[in-house]
Amino acid sequence: MTDSPSLSVRHKRLIGILILLLILIGIGYLLARNPPSAPLPQRSAWSQPTPVRVVPVQRGSLDVQIRSIGTVTPLNAVTVRSRVDGELTRVLFTEGAEVEQGTLLAEIDPAPYRAQLAQAEGLAQQNQAQLANAQADLELYEGLYEQDSIARQQLTSQRALVEELRGTLKANAAQVEDARLQLSWTRIEAPIAGKLGLRRVDAGNLVSSSDTEGLVSITQMRPIAVEFTVPEPDVPALRRAVSSGEALAVQALDRNEQQVLARGQLHTMDNQIDIATGTLRVKALFENGDDELFPNQFVNVRLRLQTLPSVITIPSDAVQFGSRGTYVYVINAEESKAYTRLVKLGATADGRVAVTEGLEEQELVVLEGLDRLRDGREVVITDGAAG
């Protein structure tokens, strides 16, 4: 009897599987006897020491300040207008000049107002003569009445005439004073001392008391004010500083905060907080002797509330914020490693912040290289870092 074809195929498959297993076993044996050389471990960039720049913790004074943006505002600004109507005959000022109070600036033709004054004085003189005549008649009537030579009604009428003329004379005196005042207003004088603006009307034009544009403007330059705002959270500290009775120093700086333009003092505060902006309006005064401040100029303002005499300070950029609170990286010099240290902060001024708890003087804190640090990370201090 012969084997069936199906059994022959099955035997061939079994033989092939056995051969494959023997080959795999042999390869495994060879690898076990001669293992391949392992590659040398390489250190990743994140495991290498991190270069950092550090600064020492310092002890010193710190000015507690409020910073804001302010606008230079004159204490007084006046638009000079004519009080009477007429022809502007003379303009006596120079544009942009400094003037004192009472300086003659311009003149209006006085002829019509001199005529009005003469007319009022003539009318008053006429009524004065009538009054004198009426008073003489009254004295005569009183004597005749005592002699029972005239009726009482005639005496009463004469007394009434005298009183009427006295009242008329008072009205005449008022008219004379008004005419004299109108005449004086033809001389336009500076109501305040300050700096003149540009001339708005030339000589020869008719001017009126109803002209809103006026002849020229005068702005007081010395002293001058700066108005700025203080955020509501800083208002309690400001009020405490004001209540201490000490003069609070204020600095006005240029737009880039590089140059101090003027130094002054806090003058006053508004009586309420603006609910729309959540700020309090504040005004400071500056002598402005060199005219560094100009009306409507924008300036940066620094208001010093107090000076802390001896506090631990570090740069504000060294402070980090995490879930546990504020912290800094402190360098352990022996291990050359950086460790986190929780700190409590105080006042901030000029890029430095006071540290009330957590640091000691002359400890080194990391200022640059913070983005790659973690607690216990090995560091390399760059040249010239500590300073």
From TrEMBL:
Top-level taxonomic group: Bacteria
Keywords: Cell inner membrane, Cell membrane, Coiled coil, Membrane, Transmembrane, Transmembrane helix
Subcellular location field: Cell inner membrane; Membrane
GO molecular function: efflux transmembrane transporter activity
Domain Multidrug resistance protein MdtA-like barrel-sandwich hybrid residues, every copy: 76-218
GO CC list: efflux pump complex
Name of this protein: Membrane fusion protein, multidrug efflux system
Originating species: Halopseudomonas bauzanensis
